[in-house]
């Protein structure tokens, strides 16, 4: 049994062996139930529940038909496994392989009209991943970037840095930036929920373009991907470049491929994850360094569905000195950008973009942090995406 569940095998197996008749009573039983569930099967069934933990196996049923008997596995929710059945010999047996790849989304919790929260568990040959998703209707919920406000106990050195290093370019000259937790940014704005926003420097300066209520607060980097909303509350994801007016200090934001009306809110990020319904990870063209572009990490992403719903997703990295990557009660291995792209596609996004991740990844809903921030506590961040009832 151990070797069937080893990391090298990457599948889980349920084995059923033919029953051998023993007298008339056994023969009658065989006519109705030609397959006998062995103790081996039941043990592995329990392992399926505890190891995969995506769907719980509630019972096994035999359904007799005139020409066959059907073995039915009843689960408590949608079954996500790819299966393959094989007849083997030595001894004769039926083996059902269940691939470790699965995606399970918990029933959505309605936070309010236009805002839902759900938890995600997914599995692959690499291990188990925990994630969280907020689904937002922008016609009912206001989504906007928000800046961290100055903390009362702000570090003296950081205060000096911020005083002497305001942004020198753009229409909002002299804008100062601070650091605070996502939960405090949400609470300071009387919002319902929020996630961390774009990348930032150690002194709080956003690394990329940020526009709040029509005011440009920071400058773009390499024309990277941005998420933005127009005055009709329609969301977009596109690359942005800036055109400066030679005769004034004003600038114009020009999307590459979309034509929104007046842009009211915008936050950059990157790389892009999905473009026109297809996987599209633009980490090279947007010149992201290896600390973001490669490897597994906690991640935050934003996406748009075909119905113009907005998805906000966080992915955890949890490690408690457990060497079993499939023990999802203790581990979450994080995702690569490519895996994050696939996750957003599976959730229904037709456009998606990566945001700041790692220790910054935080989701705050209804007065509590609902993800597992790396390091066990919230990191101070420069900005967040907040959600408010209109």
Report on the architecture of this protein.
There is one protein chain. With 390 residues, the protein is mainly beta. It has 2 domains: 3-99, no CATH class; 104-389, no CATH class. It has helices at residues 23-32, 39-52, 156-164, 182-188, 290-293, 337-346; strands at 11-18, 35-36, 57-64, 69-75, 83-88, 93-99, 102-105, 109-112, 115-124, 127-136, 141-147, 193-196, 210-212, 215-218, 225-230, 235-244, 251-255, 263-268, 272-275, 278-279, 299-305, 310-315, 317-318, 332-333, 349-354, 363-365, 368-369, 383-389. A hairpin with a 4-residue loop joins strand 3 and strand 4. The relative contact order is 0.15. Residues 1-40, 46-53 and 165-171 have low confidence and may be disordered.
Number of strands: 28
Q: Specify the structural class.
A: mainly beta
In angstroms, what is the radius of gyration? 26 Å
Approximate shape? elongated
Uncertain residue ranges: 1-40, 46-53, 165-171
Largest sheet: 9 strands, antiparallel
In total, the number of domains comes to: 2
Mean of residue pLDDT?
Answer: 81
- The percent range for strand residues is 35-45%
Helix content: 10-25%
How many separate helices? 6
Q: What is the CA-CA span between the terminal residues?
A: 56 Å
Would you spell out the secondary-structure blueprint of this structure?
Elements (H helix, E strand, L loop, with lengths): L10 E8 L4 H10 L2 E2 L2 H14 L4 E8 L4 E7 L7 E6 L4 E7 L2 E4 L3 E4 L2 E10 L2 E10 L4 E7 L8 H9 L17 H7 L4 E4 L13 E3 L2 E4 L6 E6 L4 E10 L6 E5 L7 E6 L3 E4 L2 E2 L10 H4 L5 E7 L4 E6 L1 E2 L13 E2 L3 H10 L2 E6 L8 E3 L2 E2 L13 E7 L1
Antiparallel strand pairs: 1-2, 1-6, 3-4, 5-6, 7-9, 8-9, 9-10, 10-22, 11-28, 12-26, 12-28, 13-14, 13-18, 15-16, 15-18, 16-17, 19-20, 19-25, 21-22, 21-25, 23-24, 26-27
């Amino acid at each position: 049994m151990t070797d069937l569940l080893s990391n090298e095998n990457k599948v889980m197996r349920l084995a059923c062996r033919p029953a051998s008749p023993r007298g008339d009573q056994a023969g009658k039983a065989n006519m109705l139930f030609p397959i006998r569930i062995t103790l081996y099967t039941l043990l592995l069934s329990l392992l399926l529940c505890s190891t995969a933990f995506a769907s719980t196996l509630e019972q096994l049923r035999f359904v007799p038909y005139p020409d066959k008997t059907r073995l039915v596995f009843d689960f408590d929710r949608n079954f996500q496994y790819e299966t393959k059945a094989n007849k083997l010999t030595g001894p004769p047996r039926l083996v059902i392989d269940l691939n470790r790849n699965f995606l399970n989304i918990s029933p959505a919790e309605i936070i309010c009209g236009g805002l839902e929260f759900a938890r995600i568990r997914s599995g692959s040959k690499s291990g188990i991943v925990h994630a969280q998703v907020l689904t937002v209707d922008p016609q009912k919920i206001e989504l906007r970037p928000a800046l961290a406000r100055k903390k009362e106990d702000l570090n003296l050195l950081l205060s000096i840095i911020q005083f002497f290093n305001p942004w020198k370019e753009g229409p909002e000259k002299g804008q100062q930036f601070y650091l605070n937790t996502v939960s405090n940014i949400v609470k300071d704005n009387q919002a319902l929920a929020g996630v961390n926003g774009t990348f930032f420097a150690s002194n709080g300066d956003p690394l990329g373009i940020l526009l709040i209520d029509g005011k440009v607060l920071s400058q773009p980097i390499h024309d990277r991907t941005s998420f933005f909303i127009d005055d009709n509350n329609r969301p977009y994801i596109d690359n942005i470049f800036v055109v400066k007016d030679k005769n004034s200090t004003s600038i114009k934001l020009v999307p590459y491929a979309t034509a929104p009306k007046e842009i009211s809110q915008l936050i950059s990020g990157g790389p892009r994850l999905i473009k026109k319904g297809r996987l599209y990870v633009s980490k090279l063209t947007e010149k992201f360094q290896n600390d973001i572009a490669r490897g597994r990490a906690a991640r935050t992403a934003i996406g748009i569905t075909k119905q113009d719903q907005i998805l906000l997703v966080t992915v955890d990295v949890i490690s408690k000195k457990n060497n079993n990557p499939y023990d999802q009660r203790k581990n979450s291995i994080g995702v690569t950008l490519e895996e994050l792209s696939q996750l957003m596609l599976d959730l229904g996004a037709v456009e998606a973009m990566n945001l700041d991740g790692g220790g910054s990844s935080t989701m705050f809903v209804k007065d509590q942090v609902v993800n597992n921030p790396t390091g066990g506590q919230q990191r101070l961040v420069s900005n967040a995406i907040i959600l408010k009832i209109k």
